[in-house]
């Protein structure tokens, strides 16, 4: 049987000024702000992306059973002609996978791939989009990408496929962020929160509030514009103030209902505190599952905060080892203690670790900061304890593993407030959303105060416009260049 040869093609090359240097990479270091700025125009839209036909490997590099190469843009069909030949490319039907031979730059068959065409506008990006599923030999995947580039496609920038979807109105900005969250999820619960956000829950929760704020802006500004005529409001100041306070309270309620989603998304911080040589680092390593921290009998070994993400019963936990707290003449050790106390104050839960087997640590260690939940942990359960520990203390041994599973379960139980496994709302699950919601909340209350204390003024209108701007930033109606840069810098090429 002869070598497969590519059918004659008259594919027209599409002009491209892009450089194929980033094609096929899967590197978060590459997914930076500077790379995205090549895509985003000066007005905050991806003007460089509009009209571009882009290509990238959409699966991680390396040898694998399968890999996917993604194409999107107005010239997708023409580029496919270079990959499979004009006849087979013309025979592709919408959303019906077809097994075809793919060719290298010399026209030789190098693999049989399953190719699916998603015509515009019914695609992820809103443009003609194709996915080429082939065997995961790196050389074959790289060659297919090169063929696409030589046919005129441009290498995709980080997140450019999702950016195209945003521009096409397929998703809003909150949904675009959810795509990155879903890719980065380290637990099933994080994936659940991201999937709900991707399904538009943020928009459904916040858009009605934003529309009411817009209505307030219109009414208040109408009162200003037609002050000498019949007002658009029966009682401009008081009525508008009441509406502002009602909106602020409803927004605060959304934030409260999103608290468990925030904890799932970002991970609850659990800090180990206690005196030097209490066994904190050994316990940290045991909970982390590997030797993450240097363990030494010399006091003061740990000075910086050391973090590791673990998953307990579906909940991501940021475990933090900190310096031992006690008397010291060392400036470095005292600085480490200050960091430890600061970390404890910001924690969701503190593990108060002490060693009842040590003569200088008999008894209960100092309490956790006020308002922070705590679990008292006595280490070295494999040794004789010199004095009885408090009844509330959990006995553990990092050497034998005694009590470790019980401690894991107790940490998970203490962190899992009602609603964590299935949060009431994910509308304000990200730090960016919460910050903007706080801004909107503050502007609404400020507008209410102005409206209650005086007639409708430009100050009240300005506060309401600022609140509306915060809503629009969450939902993506406003997309300044630096905002899009920060969000899409988290993406990998091919997504």
Key features of this structure:
Gyrase A, domain 2, six-stranded mixed β-sheet, 495 residues, alpha/beta, Four Helix Bundle (Hemerythrin (Met), subunit A), Rossmann fold, 12 strands
Offer a concise description of the structure.
By secondary structure, the chain is of the alpha/beta class. The protein is 41% helix and 15% strand.
Oligomer: single chain
Shape: flat
CATH class wording of the largest domain? Alpha Beta
- Strand residue percentage: 5-15%
Number of helices: 16
Biggest beta sheet attributes: 6 strands, mixed
Number of DSSP E strands: 12
CATH superfamily of the largest domain: Probable tRNA modification gtpase trme, domain 1
Report the order of strands and helices. HEEHHEEEHEHHHHHHEHEEHEEEHHHH
Gyration radius over CA? 29 Å
Structural class: alpha/beta
Number of domains: 3
Characterise the protein shown here.
By secondary structure, this protein is of the alpha/beta class. The protein folds into three domains: 20-172, Probable tRNA modification gtpase trme, domain 1 (Gyrase A, domain 2); 183-258 and 426-475, tRNA modification GTPase MnmE domain 2 (Four Helix Bundle (Hemerythrin (Met), subunit A), Up-down Bundle); 264-415, Rossmann fold (3-Layer(aba) Sandwich). It contains 16 helices and twelve strands. It has helices spanning 33-37, 76-84, 86-90, 138-150, 160-167, 173-184, 188-198, 201-225, 236-257, 259-266, 280-288, 331-345, 404-415, 431-453, 458-475, 481-488, and strands at residues 54-57, 64-72, 98-103, 109-118, 129-136, 154-155, 268-273, 306-312, 315-321, 349-354, 373-378, 394-395. A six-stranded mixed beta sheet has the order 3-4-5-2-1-6, with helices on one face. Helix 6 (173-184) runs antiparallel to helix 7 (188-198), helix 8 packs antiparallel against helix 9 and helix 14 (431-453) packs antiparallel against helix 15 (458-475). The longest helix has 25 residues, at 201-225. The radius of gyration is 29 Å and the shape is flat. The two termini are 39 Å apart. 43% of the residues are buried.
């Amino acid at each position: 049987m002869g070598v497969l040869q590519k059918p004659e093609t008259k594919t027209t090359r599409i002009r491209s000024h892009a450089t194929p240097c980033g094609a096929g990479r899967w590197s978060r270091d590459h997914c930076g702000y500077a790379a995205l700025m090549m895509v985003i125009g000066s007005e905050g839209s991806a003007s460089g992306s509009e009209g571009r036909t882009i290509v990238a490997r959409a699966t991680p590099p390396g040898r694998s059973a399968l890999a996917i190469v993604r194409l999107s843009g107005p010239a997708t069909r023409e580029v496919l002609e270079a990959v499979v030949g004009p006849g087979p490319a013309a025979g592709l039907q919408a959303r019906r996978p077809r097994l075809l031979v793919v060719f290298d730059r010399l026209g030789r068959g190098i693999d049989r791939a399953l190719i699916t065409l998603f015509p515009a506008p019914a695609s992820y990006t809103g443009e003609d989009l194709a996915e080429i599923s082939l065997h995961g030999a790196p050389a074959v995947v790289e060659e297919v990408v090169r063929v696409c580039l030589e046919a005129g496609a441009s290498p995709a920038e980080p997140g450019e496929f999702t950016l195209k979807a945003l521009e096409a109105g397929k998703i809003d900005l909150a949904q675009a962020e959810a795509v990155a969250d879903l890719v980065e999820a380290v637990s099933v619960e994080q994936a659940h929160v991201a999937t709900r956000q991707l399904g538009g829950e943020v928009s459904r929760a916040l858009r009605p509030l934003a529309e009411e704020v817009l209505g307030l802006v219109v009414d208040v500004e109408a009162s200003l514009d037609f002050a000498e005529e019949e007002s658009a409001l029966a009682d401009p100041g008081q009525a508008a103030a009441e509406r502002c306070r009602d909106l602020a309270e409803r927004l605060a309620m959304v934030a409260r209902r999103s608290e468990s989603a925030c904890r799932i998304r970002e991970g609850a911080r659990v800090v180990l505190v206690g005196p030097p040589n209490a066994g904190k680092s050994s316990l940290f390593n045991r909970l982390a599952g590997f030797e993450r921290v240097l363990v030494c009998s010399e006091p003061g070994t740990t000075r910086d905060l050391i973090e590791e993400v673990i998953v307990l019963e579906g909940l991501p936990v940021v475990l933090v080892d900190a310096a031992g707290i006690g008397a010291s003449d060392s400036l470095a050790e005292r600085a480490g203690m200050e960091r430890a106390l600061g970390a404890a104050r910001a924690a969701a839960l503190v593990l108060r670790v002490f060693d009842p087997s040590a003569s200088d640590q008999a008894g209960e260690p100092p309490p956790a900061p006020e308002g922070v939940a705590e679990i008292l942990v006595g280490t070295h359960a494999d040794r004789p304890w010199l004095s009885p520990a408090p009844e509330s203390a959990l006995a553990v041994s990092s050497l034998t593993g005694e009590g470790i599973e019980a401690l894991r379960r107790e940490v998970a139980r203490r962190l899992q407030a009602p609603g964590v496994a299935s949060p009431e709302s994910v509308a304000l699950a990200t730090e960016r959303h919460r910050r903007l919601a706080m801004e909107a909340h503050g502007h609404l209350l400020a507008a209410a105060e102005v409206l209650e204390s005086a007639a409708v003024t430009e100050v009240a209108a300005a506060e309401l416009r600022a609140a509306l701007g915060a809503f629009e930033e969450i939902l993506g109606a406003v997309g300044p260049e630096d905002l899009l840069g920060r969000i899409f810098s988290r993406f990998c090429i091919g997504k």
